[in-house]
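Key result, reporting period 2: structure in, sequence out.
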């Protein structure tokens, strides 16, 4: 115990130093290359400045406040923006989300294994996972709270007092306000841990063990009632099936699941090619070698929790239940849950300093690679934002993505800067009725925005001839220069870059 107590301050110091390293890319550049970042910032700009802007009021409105999910960002970022620039406030929220995720995983590892070890610092390898680089901040914020609450449940599960249940039921409601998928991770963790404990007592078939497994689920009752009776809609809850005949849909489903299984190390570690090809492979190889040589082992409770979460990833659809990428967004949570259960095996010759040094080097390399990628894209964001300031105040802007896989220089939501700088109407906005946020289109403009949206994967973009009739400007992303010219032949170009063209439709 004295050894663990003396190691805790050193562990915390190393954790804070390495966490600060993971946050360097976010503050090194002005515009981080996070897919949803511009869209979130523009929506929050409308939320904060709608009452004072007649131009914004022409296009947007605020829905009456209702209880529901995805509230964390809408509550905390405006509060932070009272003291700082909104751009910095959103960056701080992103950092806080990742801090909750990584510290929550450390707390879960401490609760499961009963000790701190330098292996737990490896959770920082997941700081730039694909969900972070997509900008799913509400989900990550909720996931961090879920991991903290799960560790608290494991520590305090033997208590059965009234206030114990009230506290954890309140925690479930708080996670629900952040994101429904995060609450699902917590529910799977609780159920998996209880099943593991029941199995350790000799099985889960007897009435007493079934009672012990099902009793903890009572804490989810208030969140379930809130979701069914009070909450606003958060999208379609019908699972989206794969298209085609029964056999074709089954084959597509198998290919989809096999693909995300193969990409899971990359999804956990990084969103860029070097990180996917090098660090993801290195992570899998190091873990494989460690388990093969019995230098590493996995705590038994984590086997049950991670196994149940892996089964959920296999069974869940790719979209539905109020979210897109329902199965894929759980993969970093699975990786973190597995990592927190790692322990040094009996036959290990690993020294703590070697483990610490290896983790520190890889964390530094991932941060440097992310910074390098973001510096290149930051220049492109600056050019696009300068171009968007040339459009008149109150313009209507449609954004079209041709093929972002060919030239992924910037986020397809980069046009959202027009809302901040020029109070424009933007077509592909994360607003109601398309997303469950409080900011909505004014009714006359919802149909106009629908005309320019292509949410279905693989769907062709709307024709330029139809957009030019109703929009003042069209921002075209992706493809190459030739494909962008073919999309809009003869259009007046206001701005051109390696990844986008801004077109004026009035000429």
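The corresponding designed sequence is given below.
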């Amino acid at each position: 115990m004295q050894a663990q107590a003396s190691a805790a301050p050193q562990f915390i110091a190393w954790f804070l130093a390495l966490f600060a390293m993971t946050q360097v890319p976010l503050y090194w550049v002005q515009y981080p290359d996070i897919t949803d970042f511009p869209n979130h910032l523009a929506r929050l700009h409308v939320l904060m400045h709608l009452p004072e802007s007649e131009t914004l009021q022409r296009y947007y409105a605020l829905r009456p406040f209702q209880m529901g999910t995805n509230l964390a960002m809408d509550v905390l970022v405006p509060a932070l923006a009272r003291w700082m620039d909104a751009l910095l406030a959103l960056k701080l929220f992103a950092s806080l989300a990742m801090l909750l995720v990584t510290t929550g995983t450390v707390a879960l590892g401490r609760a499961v294994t009963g000790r701190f070890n330098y292996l737990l610092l490896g959770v920082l390898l997941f700081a730039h996972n694909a969900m972070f680089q997509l900008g799913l901040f509400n989900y990550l914020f909720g996931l961090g709270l879920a991991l903290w609450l799960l560790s608290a449940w494991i520590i305090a599960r033997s208590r059965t007092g009234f206030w114990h249940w009230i506290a954890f039921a309140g925690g479930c409601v708080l996670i629900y306000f952040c994101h429904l998928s995060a609450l699902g991770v917590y529910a799977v963790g609780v159920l998996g841990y209880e099943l593991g404990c029941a199995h350790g007592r000799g099985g889960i078939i007897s009435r007493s063990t079934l009672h012990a497994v099902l009793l903890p689920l009572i804490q989810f009752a208030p969140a379930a009632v809130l979701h069914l009776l009070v909450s606003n809609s958060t999208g379609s809850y019908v699972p989206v099936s794969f298209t085609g005949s029964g056999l074709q849909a089954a084959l597509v489903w198998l290919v989809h699941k096999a693909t995300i299984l193969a990409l899971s190390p990359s999804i956990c570690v990084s969103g860029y090619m070097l990180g996917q090809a090098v660090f993801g492979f290195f992570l899998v190889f190091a873990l494989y070698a460690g388990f093969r040589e019995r230098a590493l082992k996995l705590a038994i409770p984590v086997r049950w929790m991670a196994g149940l979460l892996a089964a959920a990833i296999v069974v869940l659809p790719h979209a539905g239940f109020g979210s897109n990428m329902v199965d894929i967004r759980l993969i970093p949570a699975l990786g973190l849950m597995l990592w927190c259960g790692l322990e040094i095996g009996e036959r290990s010759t690993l020294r703590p300093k070697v483990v610490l040094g290896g983790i520190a080097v890889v964390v530094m390399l991932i941060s440097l690679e992310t910074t390098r990628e973001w510096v290149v894209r930051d220049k492109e964001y600056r050019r696009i934002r300068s171009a968007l300031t040339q459009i008149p105040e109150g313009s209507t802007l449609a954004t079209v993505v041709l093929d972002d896989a060919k030239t992924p220089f910037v986020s397809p939501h980069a046009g959202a800067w027009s809302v901040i700088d020029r109070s424009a109407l933007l077509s592909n906005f994360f607003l109601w009725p398309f997303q469950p946020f409080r900011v909505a289109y004014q009714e006359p403009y919802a149909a106009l925005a629908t005309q320019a949206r292509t949410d279905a994967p693989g769907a062709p973009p709307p024709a330029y001839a139809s957009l030019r009739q109703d929009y003042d400007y069209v921002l075209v992303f992706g493809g190459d220069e030739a494909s962008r010219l073919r999309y809009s032949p003869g259009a007046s170009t206001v701005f051109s870059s390696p990844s986008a063209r801004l077109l004026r439709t009035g000429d």
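The chain is about 60% helix and 10% strand. Residues 352-388 form the longest helix (37 residues). This case is discussed further under Risks and Mitigation.
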